[in-house]
Please model this.
Amino acid sequence: MNPRIEIITQRKLVGIRKEMTFAQNTTGKLWQSFMPRRNEIQNNTSNDLFSLQNYPTGFFDTFNPHLEFEKWACIEVSDLNSIPEGMEQLTLSEGLYAVFFYKGAASAATPTFQYIMGTWLPQSIYRLDQRPHFEILGEKYKNESPDSEEEIWIPIMLK
Model:
């Protein structure tokens, strides 16, 4: 499983965020609160959804499933002039990302993430960068379907 390497420019996102841990993962509740309201967001750049994780510094140094991180359900917008009540903005900085294609049920993705972080990254010429990680859920995303497709974006920098 080899990624494509991309440099992204700054991106503006609008959505809902929630603090959680891997041990008490409330991603489903986050998306249940976001999806009925997604059409309130104006100036979308596409219909793609972003499932974004903002991890604190050192989060992956010694993995602990009880450490908190910030999870977002959001959409990319062209400007931040109109943010619906109860939603927030996030600006992604430009930077280098390893982009992995994933096909399968969302609940079955753990081995893919373990491979990326435990095998691919240590053997690559890159190291993890301290920027948000995200998945782009496009038109072929079908949540728990084995035919579901998404892109996994991991922030990287040269070692």
The longest strand covers residues 44-54. The chain has a mean pLDDT of 96.
